[in-house]
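seq/struct pair 1
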Amino acid sequence: MKKAGAAIVALSASVDRVCLALAKAALIGMVGVIMVQVVSRYGLRQPPVWTEELARYLMVWGGLLGATAAFRRAADPAVVRVDETARDRRAMVAKLAIGLTAAIFIVPILYYSLFGAGFDPARSFMVRMSARTSPGLGINLVFIAAAIPTVCAILLLHLAARLIGGAAPGPATELT
């Protein structure tokens, strides 16, 4: 059982590194696209139609992937901070509260992203988004909407790792 727990914590750490790199890339890309838009709009007086939309999509992906990194490090907002690595009753209750509230929030979002009412995948959020395209870029919106179930699955992985081994070290300093 300890090997499975260690594997979950290791997988969470690996996924976190990828998420953090992608979040940084998305935010750098967003700033670059916005700079192109500002120069085009005010310098050339002909802004491209795709820049605002691409910046918005990069913000969505970057922000959500960054949120997974914050959750893994327990840098997310909290009413009360408790040492999750402790073995006392207060730490156990805190872990239980974190696990329950996160699962109550994440599981329904993941469910309705992949399935609709009656466990029907055809009525899911992802299927409905696959029928739409973005006006400026002309891409299928399922690629943007995929951020939601992807992040939910990553958060569940990080939640399992957090319940097994506690939050990753360094709440805010590790994010840079």
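seq/struct pair 2
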Amino acid sequence: MTALPKTFRVKSFGCQMNVYDGERMAELLGAQGMRAAAEGEDAELVVLNTCHIREKAAEKAYSDVGRLRREDGSKPMVALAGCVAQAEGAEAKARSGLIDLVVGPQAYHRLPDMVAEAAGGARPVDTDMPAISKFDALPARRRVGPSAFLTVQEGCDKFCTYCVVPYTRGAEISRPFADIVAEAEALVDSGAREITLLGQNVNAYAGGLDVLIRAIARIDGLERIRYTTSHPADMQDALITAHGEVEKLMPFLHLPVQSGSDPILKAMNRSHTAESYLRTIEQVRAARPDIAISGDFIVGFPNETDADFEETLKIVEAVGYASAYSFKYSPRPGTPAATMDGQVAPEVMDERLQRLQAVIAAQSLAFNRATVGKTVPVLIDRKGRKDGQMIGKSPWLQSVFAETGAGIGEMVTVRVEQALPNSLGGVLA
């Protein structure tokens, strides 16, 4: 039996939803009287909020656990949380004696109780995925930065053959409309000027994402709304229309296509085709001509031929992405694709990824260069590396740096004078 920890540190890996979950776990622990450990301070409790989207994610998580042992042989209380915790369950305790408790992403509202159980000598595990809202058990939102995440939907029913999300996050479930609006109001009251609505398939929100966006847009003090991640099959006409009508909805859409080859999309169990995806992009741009499009791509999916990959390059050229994430296919244990015949050789995947990323990088730089000479509103969110320099986001989610006396959370107008691959530089207009 040990004393309850008084200090904690939450380390989140992976997607924005993990960042949101990490923030909520920190708020839970803070509400119990614990204090977030300062930079460089040894925390008495460390929560590793893990991601399972990449190959060997579990091995990386256990490596991270091992690094928590101190030089004198002691260690903090260790909580394995997130999607690796969900996938590993009780096996995590067997694999590492350093892990004191295991909590899945649908059970983290129980974290304070589980910490108390661990202090009492138990090694609790909770990876249940009940179809109820964990959010009811969470404390009220506390002070936040100028940009805040807000989860509105969790889980996935799409069952793409390469993806573990349906197994680690469960079935699609949407939070009650009134609860989301109330949390958005609390975030704005706490200082947020921009809110990003989150979900594994955020545009599958049961109440209609467009209806939710329009309601949140009426909150005084909120200036920007974003959402991620979307599925092409759920880009309904009403949501597309909202892009042209809701001024606070920023001109940025992350819409993963994964491949430009219809046979590969079918093997992935994606419910769209290259043609239907391009048609959706065309509709969105008709509603909001200045919108920036972002995407996701997987190269080297089982049985992907050179011709299939060329189709991916064609769809990239057709869309013209402002940014995109691209990855080599990596088998996730338990997913159908992991046991498919026709696994692509690593060296072939490497070559294809380099070619794809070169095209995407050129498009991203071209998009940034098209902003030079324009004046853009920038929401300051952090200090730059130079004295007097501040950094913020443009409406198109570009990082913009400029010398200004404005503080974090302020909106400034910047005339863009410099375009870099990953950022813009300018001066106050």
